[in-house]
Design brief:
Strand content: 5-15%
Radius of gyration: 17 Å
Largest sheet: 8 strands, parallel
Oligomer: single chain
Number of strands: 10
Distance between the termini: 25 Å
Structural class: alpha/beta
Order of helices and strands: EEEHEHEHEHEHEHEHHEH
Bound molecules: phosphoenolpyruvate, manganese (II) ion
């Protein structure tokens, strides 16, 4: 592959990304939170539960790339301000999606990690824009992207000057209809072999339903994932988006214990 900056061949050591006291690529990375930033009181309640689990990263989208134009599109600037308050009140680092380069300044002022979603993995102008940012980027795999296409998307960010890219497998489109997407477990060891970038897994968007999240998460850790991004909610029926796949924080606590015992089994 021509892409060299992302390649393990030209950079044999694992990339490590330090954010606060946490080193992604060295420490197992937990990211949890609701799909969307919700009203301030709900978001703070969920953030407190994430902080109580000693998870360093809170995820929630203020700008949402929804499949249907009739679905909730996110709180926008108001949501970014709520995330700012989450940082101050709970000491959490924030992961949030940037769907448009025009929003980069606003979001970078608050985000500790910029998320590029599956629907934007191939948006080269957006990749170039976050490549010029100093903020680490969590780049999700496009739902129909091969690993080569995915790594080329990551290369766009590195070549533009930002070395701090985190890969995240979140499921791909197959003929199966029992999951929202098919989690490509083999992508975990394959990406780790091909690239030095940290490899996380988001089992929530692959699962689509609460009951599948824990089994997929455990499989991902057993396969060598260096972290997990999980959607949570304590009132999933009323979640603004993706409530069907949001697990309760108590369930996440149980999952964290099991995943502790699975780390390192693939090596
Ligand atoms: C999300 O993380 O809420 C999201 C929209 O994910 P994806 O881009 O993987 O669909
Ligand atoms: Mn979601």
């Amino acid at each position: 592959m021509q892409e060299s900056l992302v390649s393990r061949d030209t950079h044999p050591e694992d990339t490590r990304i330090t954010i606060g006291n946490h080193v992604i690529g060295r420490d197992f990375t937990w990211i949890a939170g609701p799909c969307s930033v919700e009203a301030a009181d709900i978001t703070f309640r969920l953030a407190e539960q994430v902080a109580n689990l000693e998870i360093p990263f809170f995820r929630a989208g203020a700008y949402k790339p929804r499949t249907s134009p009739y679905s909730f599109q996110g709180l926008g600037s108001e949501g970014v301000e709520i995330l700012n308050q989450v940082k101050q009140q709970f000491g959490l680092a924030v992961v949030t999606e940037v769907i448009d380069a025009a929003l980069l300044d606003e979001i970078s002022a608050v985000a500790d990690i910029l998320q590029i979603g599956a629907r934007n993995m191939g948006n080269t102008r957006l990749l170039k824009a976050v490549g010029q940012s100093k903020t680490p980027v969590l780049l999700k795999r496009g739902m129909s992207a091969t690993l080569e296409e995915y790594l080329q998307a990551a290369e766009y960010i590195l070549v533009a000057g930002n070395p701090n890219v985190i890969l995240c497998e979140r499921g791909i489109r197959t003929f199966d209809t029992h999951c929202r997407f098919t989690l490509d477990i083999a992508a975990v060891p394959n990406l780790r072999r091909l690239s030095h970038l940290p490899v996380l897994v988001d089992p929530s968007h692959a699962a689509g339903t609460q009951t599948l999240v824990a089994p997929l998460a455990k499989a991902a850790v057993a396969a060598g994932a260096q972290g997990l991004m999980i959607e949570i909610h304590d009132d999933p029926k009323n979640a603004y988006s993706d409530g069907l796949q949001a697990i309760h924080p108590d369930e996440l606590a149980e999952l964290m214990k099991v995943c502790d015992t699975l780390q390192g089994v693939s090596t």
